[in-house]
Amino acid sequence: MVQKYQSPVRVYKHPFELIMAAYERRFPTCPLIPMFVASDTVNEYKSEDGAVHVIERRCKLDIDAPRLLKKIAGVDYVYFVQKNSLNRRERTLHIEAYNETFSNRVIINEHCSYTVHPDNEDWTCFEQSASLDIKSFFGFESTVEKIAMKQYTSNIKKGKEIIEYYLKQLEEEGITFVPRWTPPVACKSESSTSHPRRPVSPAINIPESATKEGLSNKEILNTSSSPSEPTAGTPDDKLDADYIKRYLGDLTPMQESCLIRLRQWLQETHKGKIPKDEHILRFLRARDFNIDKAREILCQSLTWRKQHQVDYILDTWNPPQVLQDYYAGGWHHHDKDGRPLYVLRLGQMDTKGLVRALGEEALLRYVLSINEEGLRRCEENTKVFGRPISSWTCLVDLEGLNMRHLWRPGVKALLRIIEVVEANYPETLGRLLILRAPRVFPVLWTLVSPFIDDNTRKKFLIYAGNDYQGPGGLLDYIDKEIIPDFLGGECMCEVPEGGLVPKSLYRTAEELENEDIKLWTETIYQSASVFKGAPHEVLIQIVDASSVITWDFDVCKGDIVFNIFHSKRAPQPPKKDSLGAHSITSPGGNNVQLIDKVWQLGRDYSMVESPLICKEGESVQGSHVTRWPGFYILQWKFHSMPACATTNLPRVDDVLASLQVSSHKCKVMYYTEVIGSEDFRGSMTSLESSHSGFSQLSAATTSSSQSHSSSMISR
Q1: Could you read off the pLDDT of 505-558 as tens digits, one per residue?
Q2: Is there a contact between 485 and 492 (Cβ–Cβ < 8 Å)?
Q3: What ranges does the record list as Polar residues composition bias (predicted)?
């Protein structure tokens, strides 16, 4: 498995030229890096005007590895080749490094760059990326990987310290300013010097990145990490190391790398509506920074939020009066760490009455609104306290808890709420204080604990009776001034006292079922299943030419091909039977086929857009300006892996990829809309379809432009 690293952008508040003077002092050896034993110049090039300086060094490293492993490998030192390409005119330094030792067994590549800060020409930005691929190593592949990652992580931490050490050394020598390069009066020819062992390295073209405008400190310069391998993405992809520390907390270099890489992947597949950085970080923490696992649950959560319009719940949904009167919970100041504090008087709450009066879905929606409000309060407290706050504290008072609270439908509703919150709000609970736990509590705990994540369970603190008033109790976590009055404090708590819900407010099972369906079908999106040989198709009839068909869909599972067809005649309506050729039903969504098998492409219908291959997890928005009236068919088709062109046999990678799609089934969630061309101002701009973005989770959303003479798909 290839290990990758991508750093955030680190900013030195010193001019580029002074940073370069400090950097050069690292050679031929650096006492601050004990493993860096020596380096020899093997190749050097200088342009006559002095603007370009390319130098290659062979670096000798003493890796901290077990003596036995070195003896088996037959080496005491490891050699790397480093190529530095300095362009004083553009004020850039690009660094490439690769391993020379064991290059047939281990492939290591590193790319670094020093560039001028886009907003302050007297500051310097540094960025680096690296990859490690161990093919084989005498059966010690896992050991070598761990050693390599440990050594590299250690050196990353020292990198900025080393530059600052040499900057201080320069200052002690009276060097606080290095003039910028200026072109000589005349340049007639170029000369170069090189060692006879290798051919001269050519000069490189370095892009004029320093002239880019409009970027904030967080949105650092989008410059190539190396001349030969530019970093993918846009300036918005870049994260400043100072921003990470201020708003996200202290992360290890590898944790920073995981955040940046997952963020870049989301930027590529969910353009314009990626979640905020702190939300991405929560999912990474929930899966111990395993990118693949975090990406899977994050994509599932984003699809869930989009389908149920969770991002707009605080602005569009008003809790019923019954909840406002009888739900004994509310926000109450903050704890000693600055986390928002939520108080829940569960023992005073009539869970049976609430379920009978409102239903399970209304309770779930209310809990979701509480979590959404918690996310908002975390952002506000981060600004107020000047440090990252990404979770809240929950104080649960169980005074009054009895067997009435163990009513089976109520416990069922509680378990469902826990399941949904665990899946979509990971790492939001910083601490849970359970006070005055009665004897019946172990029964409740036995029922709910299997549904709670192990990491979450570690945050639970349980106090029986009045134990919370003693040492290690409530005062260790909450200031005395804000302890609620019902717990013996002096602060008036505005949380409702709860009480029994009047039976006159109870509703019948039929009424509750209809209300539940209404709550969770209030979505503009539909779900569909796509099978191998059975695409899902949507028919759109166009009366006026130059109308605009817009679409917004997420690929929830598998890979699909998206097509748009036009026909002058209407296809036959799909058959109703689930076993027929035109319609397949499944629990994950419907499947409708409209194009008759006897129809021929080019005769009965035509393709109006090029096929678009969409990968699992991608979010796609786009539009098509119709040229003719008639019937348009949007089709989502199962994507089959292409066979090898020379042998007509599937490739190994394709076979492995195809196995990941169980039973040859894909799932999509989609929304389509037809609007008049005079009302169209870009992809998905109507009132409802604009809901496709994650407004509460995204720092910003972007819209794509649309030409009336052509169609466009934004991914």
Answers
A1: 988 877 777 776 665 555 667 888 899 888 999 999 998 888 889 888 888 888
A2: yes
A3: 219-231
DSSP SS3 for 577: coil
Distance CA 603, CA 134 (A): 54
For the stretch 455-498, pLDDT in tens is 888 899 999 888 898 888 899 999 999 999 999 888 998 888 88
Calculate what percentage of the chain has a pLDDT beyond 70. Answer: 80
Distance separating alpha carbons of residues 9 and 123, to the nearest angstrom:
12
Joined tokens for residue 419: 């399941």
Q: What does the radius of gyration of the chain's CA atoms come to, in whole angstroms?
A: 31
3-state secondary structure 392-423: EEEEEECCCCCHHHHCHHHHHHHHHHHHHHHH
Pairing of strands 548-557, 619-625: antiparallel
DSSP sequence for 62-81: -----HHHHHHHT-S-EEEE
Confirm if 178 and 20 have CB atoms less than 8 A apart.
yes
Cβ within 8 Å of residue 562, ≥6 positions away:
553, 611, 612, 614, 620, 634, 635, 636, 637, 713
272 backbone φψ class: left, alpha, beta (φ>0; ψ -120 to 50): left
- What are the DSSP calls for 598-625, one per residue? T--BTTTBEE-S--EEE-TT-EEEEEEE
Closest CA to 155 of 174, 173, 128: 128
Contacts of 43 (CB under 8 A, 6+ apart): 54, 55, 56, 194, 195, 197, 198, 199, 200, 201
CA-based nearest residue to 130, from 102, 158, 98, 163? 98
Mean pLDDT of 656-679: 69
Q: What is the pLDDT of residues 217-236, one digit of tens each?
A: 333 333 333 333 333 333 44
Structure tokens at 13: 């508040």
Measured from the Cβ of residue 78, the count of other Cβ atoms closer than 10 Å reads 23
